[in-house]
Amino acid sequence: MIDTSMIARLVNRYQFSLAIEEAYAVTAQGLGTLLPDDSGVLYLKDARADLYHPIALWGKMDETPKSISSQDCWALRRGRMHKVLAGYDDIRCSHALSPSADAASLCVPILAFGEPLGLLHFSSRQDALLFPEKKQTVGLIADLLAMAIVNIRLRDRIQDMLDRDYLTGLYHRSFVEEQLGRLLKTAAREKSEIGLVMMDIDHFGYFTENYGHGAAHAVLRDLGAFLNEYLGKEDLACKFGGDEFLLILPGNSLAVSRKRAEHIRELIKDRAQYEDHRHMRRITLSIGVAAFPDHGKTTGDLIQSVKNAVKLAKEAGRDRVAVEEG
Fold first, then answer.
1. d(CA 264, CA 236)
2. Domain with 90 in it: what CATH number?
3. What does the pLDDT read at residue 89?
4. pLDDT, the chain, mean
5. Is the pLDDT score of 301 beyond 80?
6. Nearest alpha-carbon partner for 23 in 111, 116, 108, 142
7. Which of 17, 79, 113, 191 shows the greatest Cβ crowding within 10 Å of its Cβ?
8. Domain-located, residue 165
9. Is there a contact between 108 and 81 (Cβ–Cβ < 8 Å)?
10. Global pTM?
């Protein structure tokens, strides 16, 4: 018989899980309660490769499980449960926690719309693990977890869309300013640096008047796409104003940030040489650079400093990088 009270608790906690990691922890705790005498691993599929990484464990095990591929698991290959009874010389998965014949094992793929999201693997010294009601409960938990993962990812995707500018694909100013505040607290605690780079498109108003809003939008869209391609995983970029862009570069010193700003300026010029980007041929950038803690310790001070640096670049003739002297 299915433990309906435990299932109800899982459903409730899945609904309030804000991150996939929380849903994993809820699952591991629930399964540890359901199967106290057994061991298990929850694997998550890597979005970029045919790999499944262990991200939650429960019970006793001789060694820490390693990442596996779909070829290591019969359940993943077939898209359905794979069980092996204790004492039977049956086909066991190569990743089984207990490869010996005296242990029962059960693999349950976590599927959403037929696509694998992960895997639940169980090992037990007794066949109670494989009783129909246990298998039914475990299968239901796998389905509930799949739904939770899909819902959390969908919610994150919707939130990400709300946080981004529709034209450039970059974050909104408010989002990046909020993130900068958090990054500054971390940097102050860890005594690390943060670079800020602000770019302003030279004579953009004149460009719009002469070539139209369609061409102007193409420039903004192209620049946004370039920045999304160029930036590192930890970097942040936003459309700061009508023709202004702000980059946040965690861990980058003032010197490194300035070097990256110069590189961006040159890459934009190189990009304009290609036919697909011919609308960029009349575009140059005035770029300002600032850094924490060199130019301030608050969001307001740093943004003001980088804006002042942009102004210096324009006053010096545009199409250049400038830094406000502290």
1. 15
2. 3.30.450.40
3. 63
4. 86
5. yes
6. 142
7. 17
8. no
9. yes
10. 0.60
